[in-house]
Write a structure and sequence with these properties.
Number of helices: 8
Largest sheet: 4 strands, antiparallel
Distance between the termini: 45 Å
Structural class: alpha+beta
Length: about 200
């Protein structure tokens, strides 16, 4: 059984459209999950496709095991941009009022992978820890999350150029943050987490 959970109506519509175009799936079951909806269907061909691409099908509450598959870590730039766009569509946040882009997930390994993928486009981010609850759950149990924080006009412009967001309101919010000014040289620096990764690699 294939399940997609989101509270975003536009994202759900996009998901259904892609499933129809790519796999000819026309029938979906919808279940309410608190503030979110669970969109589900059963299809062995689609199941095997994801099993082949990702190596496993993660059961509920196993998000800590989810990572970007190896073949996508070294994909071409267009594919990498599409992957990042999908991740920021689902788990990303764009705030035009206090200008920044943010990605949040419980899986630190996934967050580290995304930080490195962003560097392929020279987009600089910083990582931090926080405690919060998932907005689409009824039980407001706080858990540790890892955040990627992106700021700086040059980073916003590069993100807009290379990372295709499919949610219209996120694209609009991103454009609001871009200004025709020079970048701050203190922002466009390698994040300390990546500096450590580079140092460990060349030892």
């Amino acid at each position: 059984r294939i399940r997609f959970i989101s509270a975003d109506k536009e994202l759900i519509k996009n998901y259904k459209d892609y499933m129809k175009v790519l796999f000819k799936i026309e029938s979906f079951c919808t279940y309410n999950k608190g503030r979110a909806d669970s969109i589900e269907f059963s299809d062995k061909t689609v199941y095997n496709y994801f099993l082949d691409k990702f190596g496993y099908i993660s059961p509920p509450k196993k998000s800590l095991k989810k990572n970007v598959p190896q073949e996508f870590l070294f994909a071409d730039l267009e594919t990498t941009g599409e992957i990042l766009g999908g991740l920021f569509d689902t788990d990303g946040h764009i705030n035009p009022h206090a200008p920044h882009i943010e990605f949040s997930n419980k899986n630190e390994s996934l967050v580290d992978q995304i930080q490195l993928l962003l560097l392929r486009f020279e987009i600089i981010s910083t990582k931090k820890e926080t405690w919060k609850y998932a907005s689409n759950t009824k039980n407001k149990t706080k858990r540790k999350y890892f955040l990627l924080h992106i700021s700086g006009n040059e980073n916003f412009k590069k993100f807009s150029q290379h990372i295709p967001l499919h949610l219209s309101y996120k694209r609009q919010d991103l454009q609001k943050m871009i200004r025709p000014v020079d970048s701050n040289p203190n922002i466009d620096l390698l994040p300390k987490e990546v500096n450590k990764t580079v140092k460990d690699t060349v030892k």
